[in-house]
Amino acid sequence: MTSLQDPSLSVPAPPKGDRGGSIGLARNLGLVIALVILCIVGVATAGDRFASSDNVLTILRLAAVVGVISIGMTFVITGGGIDLSVGAILALASVWATTTGTQAMAGDVHWIIMVFSAILVGAACGTINGLLIAYGRIVPFIATLAMLASARGLAEIIADRKTQIIRDQGFLDFFGAEPIGIPVIVIIFALVVAAGWFLLNRTTFGRRTFAVGGNPEAARLAGIKVQRHTVYLYALLGTTCGIAAVMLMSRTTTGSSTHGTLIELDAIAAVVIGGTLLSGGRGTVVGTLFGVLIFTTLTNVFTLNNLSTSAQAVAKGVIIVIAVLLQQRIANRKT
Amino acid sequence: MATPLLEMRGIVKEFPGVRALDGVDLVVRAGEVHCLLGQNGAGKSTLIKVLAGAHGVDDGTILWEGEPVTFADPQAALRTGVATIYQELDLVDGLSVADNVFLGHESSRGGFTRNADMNRSARELLKTLGHPEIRPTREVGSLSAAGKQIVSMARALSRDAKVIVMDEPSAVLDPDEVKGLFRVVDDLRAAGTAIIYISHRLEEIRRIGDRLTVLKDGRTVAGDLPAKDTPTSELITLMTGRTVSSVFPRRTTPLPAADPLLSVSGLGRAGEFADVSFDVRPGEIIGLAGLVGAGRSEIVETVFGARRAGHGTVTVDGHKLRNGAVDAAVAAGVGLCPEERKSQGLILDDAVYRNISLASLGRFSRYGVSTEGAERSAAREAARSVDVRPDAPDRVIRTLSGGNQQKVVLARWLLRGCKVLLLDEPTRGVDVGARAEIYALVRQLADSGVAIVVVSSDIEEVLGLSDRVLVIADGAVVHDGPSDAIDASGVLDRILATHEHQKEDVA
Question: Which CATH architecture has domain A22-334?
Answer without folding.
Answer: Orthogonal Bundle (1.10)
